[in-house]
Amino acid sequence: xxxxxxxxxxxxxxxxxxxxxxxxxxxxxxxxxxxxxxxxxxxxxxxxxxxxxxxxxxxxxxxxxxxxxxxxxxxxxxxxxxxxxxxxxxxxxxxxxxxxxxxxxxxxxxxxxxxxxxxxxxx
Length: 123
Prior knowledge:
Structural class: mainly alpha
Helix content: over 70%
């Protein structure tokens, strides 16, 4: 009984943390919103069904969450915004005094993420 209650608490804390990060992402450039909402809905499905339902029916982000769950789809607009953010972040990194190894590593990571993102089906 205690183990189940702790697991439920864990999923709720995880869902709330993801939701909070998604909310912060609305205001902080470069911090994505929808991926954290996807994570919150996933965690909610395991420990907070009411939160999951609220996210799935959300007027602004519910459709993106449902598209992802049904088809793993990302809209072209979201892909463009994500790509623009990645390019802007890389530009800031290149303009900084960061070590070359860090710049190279981040650039490779961003390239892999961009490739993965653009290979996702579109809505």
